[in-house]
Amino acid sequence: MTQSRLRTLTAALVLTLGTTTAMQPAFAQGQPERRHAVSLVAPPKMKPDFKAFDWVRPDAPKGGVLKQAEIGTFDSFNAFPTAQGNPADGLGLIYDRLFVTTPDEASAAYGLVAAWISYPDDFSSATFGLRPEARFHDGKPITPEDVIFSFEAQTRANQNIKSYYKHVTAVEKTGAHEVTFRFDSKGNRELPQIVSELQILPKHWWEGKRDNGEARDITKSSLELPLGSGPYRVKSFEAGRKVVYERVKDWWAKDLPVAVGQYNFDELHFEYFGDRLPAFGAFKTGQIDVWRENSAKAWAIDFDFDAIKSGRVKKETIPVARVAGMQAFMLNLRRPQFQDARVRQALNYAFDYEWANKNLFYEQYTRLQSYFDNSELASRDLPTGLELDILNSVKSDVPPEVFTTVWKNPVTDGTGEDRRGLMEASKLLRAAGLTRKDGALVDAKGNTIGFEFLLASPTWDRIVQPYMRKLEQLGFKVTSRQVDPAQYKNRLDKFDFDVIVGGFGQSESPGNEQRAYFGSAAADVPGTRNVGGVKNKAIDAIIERIVFAKSRDELVAATRALDRVLLWNHYVVPHWHMPADRIAYWTRFGRPEKLTSRGIDIARTWWADPTQSPPATKQ
Question: Which numeric CATH code is attached to 37-55+80-206?
Answer without folding.
Answer: 3.40.190.10
